[in-house]
Design brief:
The chain has 412 residues and is an alpha+beta fold. It is built from 19 helices and five strands.
Length: 412
């Protein structure tokens, strides 16, 4: 078989079986096959290219060995060398994946260690949460699969058909058209669901549990492939949630990241029960975000100001600079912002910075001084005063109380 064709077939086979990214690299470091559903954020790309290290390790490994590699930003990979007549030809790598569920502490550590902008927290969270979680047992199986795949040439499988005896019983054709009443009920449930997400009403979604259950009935759509049918329905549900959340005032950037995250989780879902659980988690998470971050009741200029602040939290933010960035007069912006939010712009900025600082304090891996600088404060005393204003505690007291109550996972 032509080497390039064999490479493509092996890559596609691994990709379809593992649901992980697959990359095949030759001994000189050239990528000859690559396929992945998840795109690495630009912020992380300089840290995610570890081909040279994996190539050198695989080249020195024995025929029956594979590599479990974890890079500087916690992304995990499995790799094994490709051998032909005992000559090293390159390696195959699966990943990235994680071996445990990513926590807020992990994201905080990444931000502080690599000096990432704190405004990128949401993008980092969405990316890490979209990665597959691979336990040690499955990791071992995948390593075995890689070793065997790398040691042998690709063999095209041949399907053998067996004679199927026709049943003498009458087979009833499956009807795909629901009766009129069922269709109407589903559309009513869908509209109620959309209104609930638009308003961020989790309680209403709980009341809708029966109707939503019928809406998510996967059994009658593609009977011969219920798993594919379930995924298709959840993709539609994700779109419904996305449109409803955007109508409810959720910022387009936030909606985009959420929709992308759930699309990846749906496609990578391992079982039907997981998909059903994911459906409810998805609806509730969209509701949560609408409740906490909706800008529906804000005027256009205030919405633009909020977007600018959220995307530049670690930078110097003054009323004059924010007003200039959205092309309005500072006095007009100040008046409208207070009218719409009940807060001055400076109070809003400080509130958002304190929320970010609390996450880093919970992680416990960064000094208070460094956290103050990360969230935009060059004066530690001023940061301490602002933090106490919004929490009733100094940063040190907040840490101490977290230790005492055992709320911070890093202190347990």
């Amino acid at each position: 078989m032509n080497p390039s064709i064999e490479t493509t077939k092996k890559g596609n086979l691994l990709y379809s079986i593992t649901y992980l990214g697959v990359k095949i690299v030759d001994c000189e470091g050239n990528i000859i096959f690559q396929k992945s559903q998840i795109q690495t954020p630009l912020l992380l790309q300089p840290f995610a290219n570890d081909d040279q290290t994996m190539n050198e390790t695989c080249m020195k490994a024995d025929n029956d060995q594979y590599l479990h590699y974890i890079n500087k930003i916690g992304l995990e990979y499995l790799a094994a060398g490709i051998l032909r007549e005992n000559q090293y030809k390159g390696f195959i790598v699966l990943g990235p994946f994680l071996s445990s569920i990513p926590s807020n502490e992990l994201i905080s550590d990444l931000i502080s260690k690599h000096k990432f902008p704190v405004s990128e927290r949401k993008q980092l969270q969405d990316y890490y949460q979209s990665l597959s979680i691979i336990g040690s047992k499955k990791s071992t199986y995948l390593g075995d699969l890689l070793v065997n795949m790398c040691q042998h040439s690709y063999i095209e499988g041949k399907l053998v058909n067996t004679e199927v005896r026709k049943s003498t019983k009458k087979v009833h054709k499956v009807l795909y058209d629901d009766d009129k009443t069922m269709i109407e009920e589903r559309y009513k449930a869908e509209k109620r669901l959309m209104r609930a997400i638009e308003k961020g009403e989790k309680e209403e979604i709980a009341k809708l549990s029966k109707e939503v259950k019928d809406l998510l009935d996967f059994s009658d759509r593609i009977p011969e492939s219920p798993f594919r049918s379930a995924k298709n329905i959840l993709f539609v549900l994700n779109t419904i949630c996305r449109l409803s959340a955007e109508k409810g005032g959720l910022q387009p950037v936030t909606v985009h990241h959420m929709s992308e995250k759930f699309a990846i989780l749906i496609e990578r879902a391992p079982t039907l029960p997981y998909l059903k659980k994911l459906a409810y988690e998805m609806m509730n998470e969209y509701c949560d975000h609408v409740q906490k971050h909706s800008t529906k009741n804000l005027s256009t200029i205030v919405r633009k100001a909020v977007d600018y602040i959220d995307l530049n939290l670690e930078k110097t933010l003054t009323l004059k600079e924010i007003a200039a960035s959205i092309h309005v007069h500072p006095s007009h912006l100040s008046r409208k912002f207070k009218q719409d939010t009940g807060l001055t712009i400076i109070d809003y900025v400080n509130q958002k910075r304190v929320e970010e600082a609390k996450l880093h304090l919970q992680a416990g891996s960064t000094t208070i001084t460094d956290i103050a600088l990360m969230v935009g404060y060059s004066d530690l005393n001023y940061f301490t005063r602002v933090f106490k204003k919004f929490t009733g505690q100094t940063p040190s007291q907040y840490i101490k109380k977290g230790k005492t109550e055992g709320r911070f996972s890093c202190f347990e």
